[in-house]
Amino acid sequence: MTAHLLYGGAGILLFVLGVWSFLVHEALLRKVIALNVMGSGVFHLLIAIAERGSLPPDPVPHALVLTGIVVAVSATALALAMGRRLEDEDDAR
Amino acid sequence: MNRPAKLMIGLLLCLFALVLLWVFHAALMQSPGARLADLAMDSLPLSGVKNPVTAVLLSYRAYDTLLELAVLLAALLGIWSLGAATPGFQPAGAALAAMVSWVVPLLILTGGYLLWVGGYAPGGAFQAGALLGSAGVLLRLAGDERAGLPSERAQRRLVVAGIAVFALVGLGTMVAGIGFLTYPPGWSKWLILLIETAATVSIGVTLAAAYAGGKPRSRASDGATP
Prior knowledge:
The complex is a heterodimer. By secondary structure, chain A is mainly α.
């Protein structure tokens, strides 16, 4: 119970920290990192609620997190490539 | 952004965090209620694998995984459309080169193990693919411009392989008259293994190619013009 609260609570804190950084910072790279921190918070929370009491852990949130990690990584790669392209355009000007 | 606005956002988000924590605590206090886990565990013998997470990914929610591979492919297409990759780094020093020549084969070996073990324990296509991708990242950091990947033409085929095998299996079961991605009993383990193998290769190649950050440059040794 306490472990659940600690782990899930850490996920919520990570998520809110990510939202704060996303809103406050202007640089694109920091926004991308903030989005990733938000995503990690959500993954934490999903893993924390997968196990309830003495029952075996629920495989569905685990599968969702696994899917989510890969999608987050590929979205981050696309965002970084776009950001670098934008910087190249700015430099050329 | 000015200082008061930042403080204001911080305060509001603190309140938001407190509300979320309270909701989470209240949710934990309640009894678990009906869970999908029971359904997933009950149908496990029918799915052909012994690891419930693999069963969810490749059997119960196979559509999800198919579309996820499509997302990976779309992201890589976006990256490739933004221009050529930057040249790699300078060749690695002796220590790094020696480490890479040890670690990369081990990563590939571990990837194969994780792929197989996914049938009955934590593991599977995504973990194995991530290891293959990290092998590519290591190779590129050690100075290989193309992250250890083959020519562009071969890369295109490998990247599409996962989703192609997945869709072909789905179409095959559809033609057999049992519905899209409904595996016939007895075959399911091998069909899942086939899909996972193709998906592992695709995920690994996609991640390594995404790390290179652009369309692969053609090497003089490739012969073919782009």
